[in-house]
Every structure is written in structure tokens, then in C-alpha cells.
Amino acid sequence: MKLRGLRLARQRSGLSLGQLAEVTAAIMEFMADHVTRTPPSATAEAVRIALRSTALSTERAQRELGYAPRPIESALRETIAYLADARAA
């Protein structure tokens, strides 16, 4: 199993670090539900999602759709201006 390009080492128990994180999160959920009554720091579902996440690429959109990424600052400025105008209307 890979996480952020690094191969996860197996612990002596036979669990990968990802599996260990998922078990730990499940214990945290149980403690949150039955002991502390506060939200857990992590959930088992969040760990599963994080472990299956992969790097994203815009190459196909650029090649097939002509997508041209822009600097984030100008894109955010335009989005904020658009939303402000839409709200005023």
C-alpha cells in the first residue's frame, strides 16, 4: 500500500500503517461516543478516504478539452468578484 508516494511498512503485528491508523481511528470514535462525548480527532471513514486518495492530474483535460490552468490568485479574485456581483443582484 502506498501513501503519498511512500510504501507503507508492515508492523510486527502484520498490520500496515494504514490499517493501524484505521483501527486507531475506530477506537477514537468509540471513545468519543461512549466516554468523552466529544468529536473524535479522526474517524475510520476519514482514514479510509485518505488512504485511497491519489494524485490528480490535469493533463487529460488540457489535452482533450483545451483546459488552461491559471494562477490561483487571479482565479480567486475573479471568483470573489463574480460572487459579490451575483449576491448584489
In short:
With 89 residues, the protein is mostly helical.
Keywords:
mainly alpha, 2 domains, two-stranded antiparallel ribbon, 2 strands, 60% helix, 4% strand
How would you portray this structure in words?
With 89 residues, this protein is mainly α. It has two domains: 55 residues, no CATH class; 33 residues, no CATH class. It contains four helices and two strands; from the N terminus they run ββαααα. The chain has a two-stranded antiparallel ribbon with strand order 1-2. Strand 1 and strand 2 form a beta hairpin. The protein is flat. The model has no long low-confidence stretch (mean pLDDT 84).
- The total strand number stands at 2
Rg, alpha carbons: 21 Å
Secondary structure tally, helices: 4
Biggest β-sheet strands, sense, barrel = 2 strands, antiparallel
Q: How large a portion of the residues is in β-strands, by DSSP E?
A: under 5%
Biggest sheet: strand arrangement: 1-2
Write the layout of secondary structure elements.
Layout: E1 2-3, E2 6-7, H1 17-36, H2 44-52, H3 59-65, H4 72-88
Antiparallel strand pairs: 1-2
Helix pairs in contact: 1-2
